[in-house]
């Protein structure tokens, strides 16, 4: 289970709730995976999404479905602590303080995507709940692994970006320990690339 919080009553909250509704009840057998983009598809008004803010090429912009990366970050963390693997993920290009630094994910359609793999020996059911100011993702399954975040290391990436690596230890029922990590790369400011040059603003 993992929860992230957000401000009330913004248009992006409608998108977060709609995305959570569409992901409700996803069932993963051992070895199966779910792609968020593959499952939900393109965010459109016909599906109940509205304009909201998101990051495009390092710039803050507005488009249909903006804000759903908050759901991606929440399920990313729920999966991280459930001991699952990630086939595909990408962090936000700018650090957003409401998310765990270095342990988060962004999505857009068709890319970037977030794909989660059930590497446990038991089925998993995804259940989502939300309020006006928070989103919670639950992973229902038979307890089978203990997960600890064991540390973080930050380093310079390129000329001006920051690389954050977060380490994880998984201890299984038979005592087997598996260590791995996830990473994020953050630009220093909006519209700045990792080599320090300016990024052109996206065209309308």
What do you see in this structure?
- The protein is of the alpha+beta class.
- It has a domain at 2-142.
- It is built from 3 helices and 12 strands.
- It has helices spanning 11-23, 36-40, 69-82; strands at residues 2-5, 27-28, 33-35, 51-56, 59-64, 85-88, 115-117, 124-130, 134-140, 145-157, 161-172, 177-186.
- It is globular.
Oligomer: single chain
**Dominant shape:** globular
What level of helicity do the residues show? Answer: 10-25%
| Count of beta strands | 12
Whole-number radius of gyration?
17 Å
Order of helices and strands: EHEEHEEHEEEEEEE
Mean pLDDT score = 95
Treating each run of at least 4 consecutive H or I residues as one helix, how many helices?
A: 3
Question: Helices and strands: which structural class?
Answer: alpha+beta
Brief overview, please?
The chain is 16% helix and 38% strand.
Descriptive labels:
single chain, 204 residues, alpha+beta, 3-stranded antiparallel beta sheet, 3 helices, globular
Write the layout of secondary structure elements.
Blueprint: E1 2-5, H1 11-23, E2 27-28, E3 33-35, H2 36-40, E4 51-56, E5 59-64, H3 69-82, E6 85-88, E7 115-117, E8 124-130, E9 134-140, E10 145-157, E11 161-172, E12 177-186
Antiparallel strand pairs: 1-9, 2-8, 3-7, 4-5, 6-7, 8-9, 10-11, 11-12
